[in-house]
Amino acid sequence: MTAAAVSAPNAIEVRGLTKAFRDQTILDDINMTVRAGEVYALTGPNGAGKTTLIRCLTGLAFPTRGRVSLMGRNVHTDGPRARAFLGAVVEAPARFYPQLTGTQNLTLHARLAAMTPSGRRVGRDRIREVLALLELTRMEDRRVAEYSLGQRQRLGVAAAILADPKVLILDEPTSGLDPLGINLIHRIVTSVAASGCAVVLSTHHLREIATYAHTVGILTASRLVDTIDLRTRQAAYRFRVDDSHRAAALLQQLPYVQRASSRAPYAVAELGGEERVPDALAALSASGFRVYEAAPDHFDLYEYYRERVAHA
Ligand SMILES: Nc1ncnc2c1ncn2[C@@H]1O[C@H](COP(=O)(O)OP(=O)(O)OP(=O)(O)O)[C@@H](O)[C@H]1O
C-alpha cells in the first residue's frame, strides 16, 4: 500500500454487523475497515461465516443489525449507488451463460455495469485486455460450457475487474485453481490494489496470502477474533540477549519501535524497517546488554492462526 493509500478514506466500513438465521447467530458484532489500496484477506475454519459476511458486504444478504458502507454509501439502503463501485465474485465459480462465449458473457456484463448509476462504459479493448490478463485469450470465442472449473473461476475474476472497480470482493477466488492459476490471481489482486482498489478476499491459503495481503482477519465461531497487520508483523526483528525482558522494555521506549515484547531468549521488536537494526543494536549495547544475535523475526501466519483458532 502506498503512503497516499494509507491516508485514503475507508473504502469498506462494517460496523456492528450481526446476522442471525432463526435463533442461530452466524455473524456477531463484526467491525472492519478496508482502505483504498489495501488487500484484506478473510480466513477462518469451515462454517465460521466467511461467505455470509462476504454476501453481506456485497449487499446480497441483509444483516440483522449493523451496517456496511462501500465508498461511503450504505450497501443495503443505497444499494445501486454503493454497488456502482463494486466488482465481486460471490459464488465459486461465478455463474455465466453456458451457451455464450467468454467474450459474449463479458460483453453482457459490461452492458449491465454501464446501466448502474455512474456506471463506466467498457469497450471491446478492455474486454480483450481482461481476458488476456486472466490468460483466457485462447478461450475467448469458446462457449463457457466448454470451460474447465479453473477457467470459469478466472472468467469470474475477469468480470469482477472489468469496469475498474474501487472495491473488489472475492469469495475463495483461488479454489479449484492450479498453482499457476493461484499465482495469477495473486498477481492480479496485487496489481488491482496497487492501482488504488480496496480488495477483500476469503481464503484458506494462509502461506500464500501471507506473501501479499496487507491485513488478515480471522473469523471463527461467528466473531472476527483478530485483525493482523502483516506489514508491521513482517518488519519485526529479534535480538538474542542476556535479559530479554529488560531488553524488550528498553526497545519499547525507542521512538521508532512500534511494539516490543520478550520471547526468551529473544527480545522481539517491530522496527519499521531494516535500516533501524543498527540503531536498535547501538541502543541495546549502550544500555549494557550483551547481544548475541540479530535477525528478522519471520511471522508464521499458519502457526499464529493455529494458536488463535485453538484458543478463540
Ligand atoms: N441460508 C442459511 N440458513 C441457515 N444457516 C445458514 C445459511 N447460510 C449459511 N448458514 C450457516 O452459517 C454458518 C456459516 O456459513 P458460511 O458459508 O458463511 O461459512 P464459511 O466460513 O464460508 O465456510 P466455508 O469455509 O466452509 O466456505 C454455517 O453454520 C452455515 O450452516
Explain what you see.
35% of the residues lie in helices and 28% in strands. The protein is an alpha/beta fold. The protein has two domains: 3-231, 3-Layer(aba) Sandwich (Rossmann fold), CATH 3.40.50; 234-298, Alpha-Beta Plaits (2-Layer Sandwich). Strand 12 (259-263) and strand 13 form a beta hairpin. The model has no long low-confidence stretch (mean pLDDT 91). Bound molecules: adenosine-5'-triphosphate (ATP). Adenosine-5'-triphosphate (ATP) binds next to helix 2. Residues 12-246 form the ABC transporter domain. Belongs to the ABC transporter superfamily. Pfam families: ABC_tran.
Name the shape in a single word.
Answer: elongated
Q: Please name the CATH architecture of the largest domain.
A: 3-Layer(aba) Sandwich
The count of helical stretches stands at: 12
The H-and-E topology, N to C, reads as: HEEEHEEHEHHHEHEHEEHEHEEHEH
Please tell me the overall pLDDT: 91
Q: State Rg.
A: 22 Å
Judged by helices, strands and strand pairing, the structural class is alpha/beta
Question: Helix fraction?
Answer: 25-40%
Instruction: Order the strands across the largest sheet as they lie in space.
Output: 6-7-8-3-9-10
What's the CATH topology name of the largest domain? Rossmann fold
Biggest sheet, open or closed, and with what strands and sense?
Answer: 6 strands, mixed
Give the CATH class of the largest domain.
Answer: Alpha Beta
Task: Please state the oligomeric state of the protein chains shown.
Answer: single chain
The parts where pLDDT drops under 50 for at least 5 residues are: none
Family: Belongs to the ABC transporter superfamily.
Protein name: ABC transporter ATP-binding protein
Keywords: ATP-binding, Nucleotide-binding, Transport
InterPro entries: AAA+_ATPase (IPR003593), ABC_transporter-like_ATP-bd (IPR003439), ABC_transporter-like_CS (IPR017871), P-loop_NTPase (IPR027417)
